């Protein structure tokens, strides 16, 4: 399994995304499944699209939210793993 913390992370080309009222809806065109992100998940998605690296996303979130680094890393790892498992993000696709 590729390492989410060292590899580049890129949105799948099969994914459409739309922000609606501070939240984001993702549609995987490959399997026609929807995936919803709350406001924090939306911020993660925005930063991921911008930076393509988990450590950079974490650093920016650490500046924006009051959360311990351990909690942030655990939550971010869980979300990124979920996005990868759903086919919404590719690991190492550069």
Can you lay out the helices and strands and say which pair or pack?
Elements lengths: L8 E3 L3 E6 L2 E6 L4 E5 L1 H13 L2 H11 L4 H17 L3 E3 L3
Antiparallel strand pairs: 1-5, 2-3, 3-4
Helix pairs in contact: 1-2, 2-3
Question: How would you characterize this protein structure?
Answer:
The strands form 2 sheets. A 3-stranded antiparallel sheet has the order 2-3-4. A two-stranded antiparallel sheet has the order 1-5. By secondary structure, the chain is an alpha+beta fold. It is 44% helix and 24% strand. The chain has helices at residues 39-51, 54-64, 69-85; strands at 9-11, 15-20, 23-28, 33-37, 89-91. Helix 1 (39-51) crosses helix 2 and helix 2 (54-64) crosses helix 3 (69-85). A hairpin with a 4-residue loop joins strand 3 and strand 4. It contains 3 helices and 5 strands.
- Overall morphology: globular
- Strand arrangement in the largest pleated sheet: 2-3-4
Note the quaternary state here: single chain
Can you give the helix content as a percent range? 40-55%
Give the tally of β-strands.
5
Tally of separate helices: 3
* Rg over C-alpha atoms, rounded to the nearest angstrom: 13 Å
Q: State the end-to-end distance.
A: 16 Å
Average pLDDT across residues?
94
Instruction: Please report which band the strand proportion falls in: under 5%, 5-15%, 15-25%, 25-35%, 35-45% or over 45%.
Output: 15-25%
- Written as H for each helix and E for each strand, in order along the chain, the element string is EEEEHHHE
Q: What structural class should be given to the helix and strand makeup?
A: alpha+beta
Residue runs with pLDDT of under 50 for 5 or more positions:
none
The description of the largest β-sheet is: 3 strands, antiparallel
């Amino acid at each position: 399994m590729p390492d989410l913390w060292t590899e580049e992370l890129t949105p799948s080309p099969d994914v459409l995304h739309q922000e609606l009222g501070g939240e984001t809806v993702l549609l995987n065109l490959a399997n026609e499944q929807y995936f919803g992100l709350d406001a924090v998940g939306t911020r993660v998605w925005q930063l991921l699209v911008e930076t393509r690296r988990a450590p950079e996303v974490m650093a920016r979130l650490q500046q924006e939210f009051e959360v311990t680094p351990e909690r942030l890393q655990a939550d971010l790892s869980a979300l990124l793993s979920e996005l990868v498992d759903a086919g919404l993000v590719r690991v190492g696709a550069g």
